[in-house]
């Protein structure tokens, strides 16, 4: 894991770089132009500044970034995006669509260009095929490639073939990621293989990093909260830089702490008050779901801070335990979902009033996760090194 | 006589998943067609041996759009196997969540994925805002978000969009294609609602999250009941649900339904000639249980089978007549249909021809071929509205008749792409109406002091019989077949709506619903197979999408001149 000291260093150098760039590019004219654009879209300057401070907080950046985000948004150039669908359920695209965090992000995104996205395109067949080829050529080294879904690799990848020539998903992913500026894996499928890679993984499905051995930023979750996808993308767009990552290449701002650390039911965990059966008195009172299988103590994600659908609700809020959907192989390692994980080493407070040693749990888990996926603990802060080491023990 | 031309359309966009259509075109008409699913994920083998309580969460990852559908269908079949039923509160909350899913799915499908098959962006740019406002008032007393001012703004937005070269989802569109029939003002009305729907879908997703935890992939359903008891007991939550329901109702009544009338009016030839419906048989399992024993007669969406388009006779559904054939699918299996309770899913991939086309005489799809009593069936909103019509179920017949009489149309015209699209809109209104009822029923039940949300159960020591809960997903009939021993799943098969509709041929050579519906449709220009997309999309082959993200590619737009 990246330590907080490393992070501080990262932010300091990032701030310097951003300032240098902004000095060159930012001017009164750009600001006026941008203000005009805001106005046309029905936003005030104040809305915009509010958004910048919201984003600063969401990305867990130091407050000094607030004014830089505001400036960077005004001058940002358009970045083409190619979004590929592999073996997936499209839940990630769906989740992405629910973004309203807040609406200004939409405006900023209008400066992004979604050059290719299967589920959005008007035309079908040959015409979009040509479109993809041209886009790769034209934006060589400049586009962001987003992959949704796992890559089937067994039997030469024949379980997914796309296009009139029957190109396999594997070939397609190789071809498109090769010339991208940054490759992003959206969702647990693209990051770690996801549901189709669950035992016995009949199609040899793998996450992008495992299948292609390339550098990647993983934004897992099944699906990830739109906050995490949009936030990571905005960080890259605004600063032209990948945010700091953990050992599984997940952005630390989103995956740096556990669900359990910020859970609204945490006081009940510490007090030893648990739901023992669905719909019982404890369930009506909002007690802790650990005994009903909650994997919040094992899961690094920010759901407990941001909830879903504009803060409407989230699984633990709705009385269901966390299933650990942003962790590698969670379909196998976190199951059964309605029972506590015996091997996790979590000590439940025995009786009411006993406090849990949460720090101990945390460090145990950080170690356990890294060991379980066999990743070397040598990732640099900004760029996780491409590692050939398989993330899955199974293969 | 023109030459026969073979055309491959892959990928088919604006759907969920990976679909290929191949057609033979002769004299500008489709003579033959093949539908192929090009991705296999192997979900069924993955389910073997898993804890039955985990299966629902896993199967909902079959589809990221109707995620509640698989989750609930799985849970209900597990409950059948375990011999239990959830308490009244759980049934009602499930129906309320499901209602939000249906409305979400239908609205997003029609606007984001389908409306551009009917409305031409090129037309909208030419529209006169004053006349557009008049036209909107012709189809609705209080048209949604309609005013001369607003239409002006939408045109400005579109013009900017096009002038900047950022066509986004519209890039490569079949602009100005002759098969588009709306007047420019009609194009503008529909496209302005396309933009409004982007907002409405967020509200509907929030509606699901109130009791369902989140959207997509809700997480409050468990075998035996639901977990969101705190939300259920919180009156503010109900207030949120009903106020969002009102907001969505406004859109359904003043945008969606009038737009369907508009389309029906201007596509009246296609409607009366029955374009795009090759199906003769229609199947609906019935959905939204109204009683705790889930009796078929008391479901809000009706159950039944219609043969040969005969609306005077409806047969009850017996799941033992469902079979799946894999003769033309990439699986091992006998040369006949097999009951899903006895079936395996063992892949046997035989590849494509050297030129990349499908091997039509052999296996050519990852989709199996389900049949009912050996016959091909269409499933989905059209089937449900037809079965409801034929059975005179609740007020479905009144709703369909009201629509038909507005257009001076006969019931037989429902057998068409226009009819299929209208059926979905009528059903959206019908479900919206139902959601109020379940919310009222929930309040009434809570008032009686009943707070139960879960039914306790025992795990079977012996393996259970094959159990199935017949279910309706937004896109059609859905069945999960399961056997359980102890806590473990010992057998699992899923027959999903798109399997029925996108089915390849069976051992008798009978085509599936997509394949059949394309026969005879005009394709004047094979580079722009608009009519193929219109018909295929009208089945809603899943997914919904439309991000506010645009495209810098300006190459395509050059041939299309805009006066700004
Ligand atoms: S990560 Fe989950 S939501 Fe996203 S595509 Fe995979 S299964 Fe669907
Ligand atoms: S175990 Fe789960 S419900 Fe309990 S405090 Fe931790 S995250 Fe929250």
Please characterize this protein's 3D structure.
The complex is a heterodimer of chains A (395) and B (564). Chain A has helices at residues 4-25, 28-40, 45-58, 65-75, 91-97, 104-109, 126-138, 169-178, 187-192, 208-212, 226-239, 252-255, 266-270, 281-285, 303-306, 330-333, 358-373, and strands spanning 79-85, 112-117, 144-148, 151-152, 161-162, 167-168, 182-186, 205-206, 217-219. With 395 residues, chain A is an alpha/beta fold. Chain A has three domains: 19-72, no CATH class; 77-251, Rossmann fold (3-Layer(aba) Sandwich), CATH 3.40.50.700; 259-346, Cytochrome-c3 Hydrogenase, Chain A, domain 2 (Irregular). In chain A, the strands form three sheets. In chain A, strands 2-1-3-7-9 form a five-stranded parallel sheet, sandwiched between helices. A two-stranded antiparallel sheet of chain A has the order 4-8. In chain A, strand 5 (161-162) and strand 6 form a beta hairpin. Chain A is globular, with a radius of gyration of 22 Å. Chain A starts with a helix and ends in a 22-residue tail after the last helix. Chain B has one domain (5-543): Orthogonal Bundle (Cytochrome-c3 Hydrogenase, chain B). Chain B is of the alpha+beta class. In chain B, helix 4 (88-114) packs antiparallel against helix 14, helix 12 packs across helix 14 and helix 13 packs antiparallel against helix 14 (417-447). The longest helix of chain B is centred in the middle third of the chain and has 32 residues, at 235-266. Chain B has helices at 43-47, 52-59, 67-82, 88-114, 121-126, 129-139, 148-163, 184-212, 229-233, 235-266, 268-273, 381-391, 396-406, 417-447, 497-501, 513-518, 530-538; strands at residues 5-9, 19-26, 29-37, 221-222, 225-226, 282-284, 287-289, 299-301, 304-306, 322-325, 369-372, 467-473, 476-485, 488-495. Residues 543-564 of chain B have low confidence and may be disordered. Chain B has 17 helices and 14 strands. The radius of gyration of chain B is 23 Å and the shape is globular. Chains A and B meet through strand 1, helix 5, strand 2, helix 7 and strand 5 of A and strand 1, helix 1, helix 2, helix 8 and helix 9 of B. One iron/sulfur cluster is lined by residues 259-260, 263, 265-266, 269, 288-290, 294, 296-297, 316, 321-322 of chain A.
């Amino acid at each position: 894991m990246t330590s907080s000291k490393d992070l501080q260093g990262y932010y300091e150098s990032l701030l310097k770089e951003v300032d240098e760039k902004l000095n060159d590019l930012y001017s009164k004219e750009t600001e006026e132009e941008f203000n005009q654009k805001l106005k046309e879209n029905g936003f005030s300057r104040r809305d915009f500044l509010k958004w910048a401070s919201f984003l600063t907080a969401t990305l867990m950046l130091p407050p000094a970034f607030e004014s830089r985000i505001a400036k960077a948004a005004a001058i940002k150039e358009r970045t083409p995006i190619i979004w590929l669908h592999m073996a997936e359920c499209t839940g990630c695209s769906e989740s992405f669509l629910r973004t309203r965090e807040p609406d200004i992000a939409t405006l900023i995104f209008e400066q992004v260009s979604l050059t290719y996205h299967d589920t959005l395109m008007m035309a079908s067949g040959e015409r979009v095929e040509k479109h993809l080829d041209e886009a790769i050529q034209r934006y060589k080294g400049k586009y962001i490639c987003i992959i949704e879904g796992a890559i089937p690799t067994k039997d030469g990848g024949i379980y997914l073939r796309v296009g009139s020539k029957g190109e396999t998903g594997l070939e397609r992913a190789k071809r498109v990621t090769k010339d991208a500026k940054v490759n992003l894996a959206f969702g647990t499928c693209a990051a770690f293989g996801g549901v189709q890679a669950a035992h016995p993984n009949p199609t040899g499905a793998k996450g992008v990093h495992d299948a292609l051995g390339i550098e990647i930023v993983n934004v897992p979750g099944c699906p990830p909260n739109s906050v995490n996808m949009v936030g990571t993308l905005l960080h890259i767009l605004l600063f032209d830089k990948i945010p700091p990552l953990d050992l599984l290449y997940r952005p630390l701002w989103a995956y740096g702490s556990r669900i359990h650390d910020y859970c609204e039911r945490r006081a009940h965990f510490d007090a030893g008050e648990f739901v023992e059966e669905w719909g019982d008195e404890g369930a009506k009172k909002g007690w802790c779901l650990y005994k009903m299988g909650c994997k919040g103590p094992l899961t690094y994600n920010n759901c407990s801070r941001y909830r879903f659908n504009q803060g409407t609700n989230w699984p633990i809020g709705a009385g269901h335990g966390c299933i650990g959907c942003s962790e590698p192989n969670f379909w196998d390692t976190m199951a059964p979902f309605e029972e506590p994980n015996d091997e996790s080493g979590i000590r439940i407070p025995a009786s009411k009033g006993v406090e849990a040693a949460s720090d101990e749990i945390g460090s145990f888990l950080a170690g356990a996760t890294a060991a379980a996926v066999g990743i070397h603990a040598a990732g640099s802060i900004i760029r996780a090194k491409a590692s050939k080491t398989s993330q899955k023990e199974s293969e | 006589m023109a030459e026969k031309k073979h055309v491959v359309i892959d990928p088919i966009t604006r759907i969920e998943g990976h679909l290929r259509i191949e057609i033979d075109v002769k004299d500008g008409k489709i003579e033959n067609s093949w539908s192929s699913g090009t991705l296999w994920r192997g979900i069924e083998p993955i389910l073997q041996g898993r804890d039955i309580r985990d299966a629902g969460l896993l199967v909902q990852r079959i589809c990221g759009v109707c995620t509640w559908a698989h989750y609930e269908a799985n849970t209900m079949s597990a409950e059948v196997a375990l011999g239990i039923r959830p308490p009244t509160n759980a049934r009602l909350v499930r129906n309320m969540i499901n209602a939000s899913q249906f409305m979400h799915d239908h609205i997003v499908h029609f606007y984001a994925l389908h409306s551009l098959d009917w409305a031409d962006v090129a037309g909208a740019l030419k529209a006169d805002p004053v006349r557009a406002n008049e036209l909107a008032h012709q189809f609705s007393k209080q048209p949604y978000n309609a005013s001369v001012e607003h239409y002006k703004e939408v045109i400005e937005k579109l013009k900017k969009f096009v002038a900047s070269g950022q066509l986004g989802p519209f890039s490569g569109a079949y602009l100005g294609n002759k098969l588009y029939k709306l007047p420019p003002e009609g194009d503008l009305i529909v496209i302005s609602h396309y933009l409004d729907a982007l907002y409405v879908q967020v509200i509907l997703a929030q509606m699901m999250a109130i009791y369902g935890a989140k959207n997509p992939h809700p997480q409050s359903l468990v075998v035996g009941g639901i977990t969101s008891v705190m939300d259920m007991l919180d009156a503010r939550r109900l207030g949120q649900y009903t106020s969002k329901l009102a907001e969505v109702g406004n859109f359904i009544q003043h945008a969606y339904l009038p737009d369907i009338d508009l389309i029906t009016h201007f596509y009246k030839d296609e409607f009366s000639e029955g374009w795009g419906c090759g199906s003769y048989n229609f199947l609906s399992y019935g959905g939204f249980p109204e009683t705790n024993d889930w009796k078929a007669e008391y479901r809000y969406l009706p159950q039944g089978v219609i043969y040969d388009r005969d609306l005077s006779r409806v047969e009850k559904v017996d799941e033992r007549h469902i079979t799946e054939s894999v003769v033309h699918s990439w699986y091992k299996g006998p040369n006949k249909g097999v009951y899903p309770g006895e079936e395996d899913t063992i892949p046997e991939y035989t590849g494509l021809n050297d030129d990349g086309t499908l091997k039509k005489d052999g296996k050519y799809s990852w989709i199996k071929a389900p049949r009912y009593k050996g016959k091909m069936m269409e499933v989905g909103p059209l089937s449900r509205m037809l079965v409801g019509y034929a059975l005179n179920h609740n007020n479905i017949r009144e709703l369909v008749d009201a629509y038909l009489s507005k257009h001076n149309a006969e019931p037989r015209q429902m057998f068409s792409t226009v009819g299929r699209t209208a059926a979905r809109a009528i059903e959206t209104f019908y479900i919206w109406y139902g959601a109020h009822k379940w919310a009222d029923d929930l309040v009434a039940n809570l008032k009686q002091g009943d707070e139960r949300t879960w039914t306790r159960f025992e795990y079977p020591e012996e393996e259970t019989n094959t159990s199935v809960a017949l279910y309706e997903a937004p896109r059609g009939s859905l069945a999960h077949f399961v056997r359980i021993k102890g806590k473990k799943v010992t057998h699992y098969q899923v027959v999903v709506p798109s399997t029925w509709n996108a089915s390849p041929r069976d051992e008798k050579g009978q085509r599936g619903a997509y394949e059949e519906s394309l026969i005879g449709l005009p394709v004047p220009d094979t580079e722009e197979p608009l009519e193929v997309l219109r018909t295929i999309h009208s089945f809603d082959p899943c997914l919904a999408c439309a991000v506010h993200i645009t495209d810098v590619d300006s190459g395509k737009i050059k041939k299309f001149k805009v006066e700004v």
